[in-house]
Amino acid sequence: MKYIIAIIKPHKIDDVMKALEEVDVNLMTVSNVLGRGRQMGVTEVYRGTKEVGSLLKKVKLEIAVNEDFVEPTIQAITKGARTGEIGDGKIFVLDLPDVYRIRTGERGGTAIG
Amino acid sequence: MNTGDTGWVLTSSALVLLMTLPGLAFFYGGLVRRKNVLSVLMQCLIILCVITLQWVLFGYSLTFGLDTGQGIIGGLDWLGLRNVGGQPNTDYAATIPHYAFMIFQCMFAVITPALIIGTYAERIKFSAFLAFTLLWATFVYDPLGHWVWGTGGWLRNLGALDFAGGIVVHTSSGVSALVLALLIGKRIGMERQHFAPHNLPFTVLGGALLWFGWFGFNAGSALSANELAATAFVTTTVATAAAGLTWALIEWQQNGSPTALGAVTGAVAGLVAITPACGFVNPMNAIFIGIIVSFLCYVAIAKVKSYFKYDDSLDVFGVHGVGGIWGTIATGLFAEKAVNDAGANGLFFGGAQQLLIQCVLVVVTVVFAAAMTWIIFKLVDAVIGVRVEKTKEIVGLDLTQHSESAYTLVD
User: A50, B259: Cβ pair inside 8 Å?
Assistant: First the structure.
């Protein structure tokens, strides 16, 4: 099992969800986050005072998948989120030792989807 | 007694109340960080409560009461509104009930110390704020109001012109704010980062309510529903429009984008600048006053403040101090008797004398407000301590001064 974390541009979330549905990945957790990459954020100006390096608004997806779904999930996120410009984001893949479904008490691969 | 006049002045009183709360409260509230927004709203709300009582108990008598003889302060004849009632007072407003004049002026006394809170926002003890506000209203606003507006006041006798409070309200609060910013010191972390406003829509909303309420402030200061009120209404809104647009254009040229915060700041600066002049100048000169104030205030805030690095947190001096001083001097330039026979001619209409008087007015106000604010600050600091402890400042005033939070994280 893997735990996939993707940081993407906020306006690409709909495209990413559509691409994930096509490969039958429907469970996810989404949150608004702030961050910056190599472009070092944006510049904001308040009453003439420039604030360089402010954090950019991003969206974070967290998805737990069985091994068979790892590659399709990564492909789907990449397809949905890519614009080709700087700031498209990143995908992190982590090992996931265990999963429990709270309602039924199921555990491991059966609890994941 | 005139029912139209009475209706307009009472309506104007309510409009000026709206300027403090919610207008100024949200204008300032949006500019602070999330952890301090309630402290700002609370300070505006409590000033409304405390100064209203101060005013009816003794503030009104000190400011507008019969002069004690030297032109310095009003007597105690109107303590607790004694001898103030439904009949007009012919010295101030012959066609409306004395109560109507008194409560209209009450709202001015309320908003003036409320303007000051922007300078020490995010780091003052609530108890110290309360003590400072009460002392400042009594020892700065009340005497100055008497000098400029009270019958027998020495600046009024000198011929000083301040139609709606460019001196008494804005210059006094703005200069006091600068002194306070220097005395209380910078907010923790200011050297490392600039604090971004937490809710600019609040600030634009509050600024818009200020513009709306300002019609009561300026046009209401005619104290009649007549042509002078209409003049002040028109000059007020055209100066504001010019100032808001000018600020946005300056930013566009300087920084590449016109900002909402800049436009609303410019509009407030325009309102401030036209305040002393609104009943004495014609609308085309009002536009000019509005254009110039945005240049002056922009330089004060974006250049001078960042050069000297003082933390007038929400730019009370940069907007109200600089704007008020410019408006007061502009009155000495553009005032004309053709607009208001009870006024005077400024420099451009053959009255060099008036410009001199307006400059005296500015100097006296700056010196008086600065000196008194310094004394009051030192007094309150010695007795109560003005600034919150470092850890409390970091946690925020909402939680440490008021035990509440503006926004919950979980529904």
Answer: no
Rounded distance between C-alpha atoms, residue B198 and residue B346, angstroms: 43
CB contact under 8 A, B196 and A46: yes
CB neighbour list of residue B358: distance below 8 Å, 6 or more residues apart = B160, B161, B328, B329, B331, B332
Q: Which domain holds residue A92?
A: 2-112
Measured distance CA(B168)–CA(B156) in Å, rounded: 12
Question: Which chain B residues are closer than 8 Å to A51 by Cβ?
Answer: 193-194, 196
**CB contact set of B256 (below 8 Å; sequence gap of 6+):** none
Collapsed DSSP state (helix, strand, coil) of residue B271: helix
Interface ipTM above 0.90: no
Domain range B3-402, CATH architecture:
Orthogonal Bundle (1.10)
Look up the pTM and report it: 0.92
| Nearest residue, CB atoms, A45 vs list B193, B255, B303 | B255
Of A44, A45, A47, the CB nearest to B315: A47
- The structural domains of chain B, with segments of one domain joined by +, span 3-402
Contact B239, B179 (CB under 8 A): no
Asked if B274 and B218 touch (Cβ cutoff 8 Å), the reply is: yes
pLDDT tens, B271-330? Answer: 999 999 999 999 999 999 999 999 999 999 999 998 999 999 999 999 999 999 999 999
Q: Give the total number of structural domains in chain A.
A: 1
pLDDT tens sequence across B146-182: 999 999 999 999 999 999 999 999 999 999 999 999 9
Neighbouring C-alpha atoms within 13 Å toward the C-beta of B106: 26
Size of interface A-B (CB pairs under 8 A): 33
- The answer to whether B85 and B101 have CB atoms below 8 angstroms apart is no
